[in-house]
Amino acid sequence: MNSRLTYLIIAFAFFFLGCSSDPNKNLRESLTLYASFDQAEADFAMGDKALYAAASRRSMDSTTQQGLATGVHELEAGGKWGNALRFIKRDDAVLFFKSAQNINHTPQNWSGTISFWLKVSPETELAPGFTDPIQITDTRYDDASIWVDFTRESPRVFRLGILGDRTSWHQDTVRTSARAEYERRLIPVATPPFDNSTWTHVVILYKDLGTPMATYELFLDGNTMGKREGIDDPFNWEPEKSNIYLGLGFVGRMDELAIFNRPLSNEEIIQLNQMNEPFKF
Predict the structure, then answer these.
(1) Which residues have C-beta within 8 Å of that of residue 62, sequence separation ≥ 6?
(2) What is the distance between the alpha carbons of residues 232 and 213, in angstroms, rounded to a whole number?
């Protein structure tokens, strides 16, 4: 066997072994934040890894502490893998990661993907009122914000909302009502497949936010639930004030939160949905 052929065989073997040892390398290298919830901090973060709790959203300046709020949040066995984050009861307490560097925000041409798993029976577990399993903003839900929620009415509708600067999208009310403009930015799922006996995979994909080419899409268990296009609201965050809020008003379980710095392909979303082990670091 000549030396060139030997070299090629060895090189191929190392490449194959490297791919086999980490089949999710392409996804892992695009992460900005990953939390397995096996512990009360992120496994990987481009910014602050700590998980913070505060007594309420209004009192964050004076009550924020690192870790979970006792009696409101806990880590428990039985997650997608390892532990899961359990929201025990509806409460004013808020739980959050800091957004700065953990999500690659830009006011324009902002793209990325957010993935997590939920286990909840909306009709029997959720307390009355709106509940947001995740909400990312520097101000409020209708001003430069990305979120999913369950509506307060029964049956509970699951919705994705992506709304840019409130001052910007309110300008569109020359032609329609503010409520109509708000609703136009939502993706509702009337009969979502959530249940407290199984994990449901949620993926939020967004591309070119803040431009006329903007698109965003909601996936549940690898299947698209709807898509919005051409909503060019800018997202002028103050990064140091923005947070990744978890479980606002929520009662149920969350696991495997992953935020990526790019929009994943449909094939990668299926790959993410079918992973059989957590990301390795």
Answers:
(1) none
(2) 7
Cα distance between residue 259 and residue 112, in whole Å: 7
CB 238 within 8 A of CB 169: no
Q: For the segment 20-53, what is each residue's pLDDT rounded down to a tens digit?
A: 578 899 999 999 999 999 999 999 999 999 999 9
181 backbone φψ class: left, alpha, beta (φ>0; ψ -120 to 50): alpha
- Cβ-based neighbour number of residue 179 at 10 Å: 9
CA 108 vs. chain centroid, Å, equals 19
| pLDDT 10s digits, 199-258 | 999 999 999 999 999 999 999 999 999 999 988 898 888 888 999 999 999 999 999 999
**Confidence at 11, pLDDT banded by 50, 70, 90:** very low
Q: Return phi, psi of residue 122, to 5°.
A: -55, -40
Does the pTM surpass 0.85? The reply is yes
Output the 3-class SS for the chain: CCHHHHHHHHHHHHHHHHHHHCCCHHHHCCEEEEECCCCCECCEECCCCECEEECCCCCHHHHCEECCCCCCEEEEECCCCCEEEEECCCCCCEEEEECECCECCCCCCEEEEEEEEEECCHHHHCCCCCEEEEEEEEEECCEEEEEEEECCCCCCCEEEEEECCHHHHHHHHHCCCHHHHHHHCEEEECCCCCCCCCCEEEEEEEEEECCCCCEEEEEECCEEEEEEECCCCCCCCCHHHCEEEEEECCCEEEEEEEEECCCCCHHHHHHHHCCCCCCCC
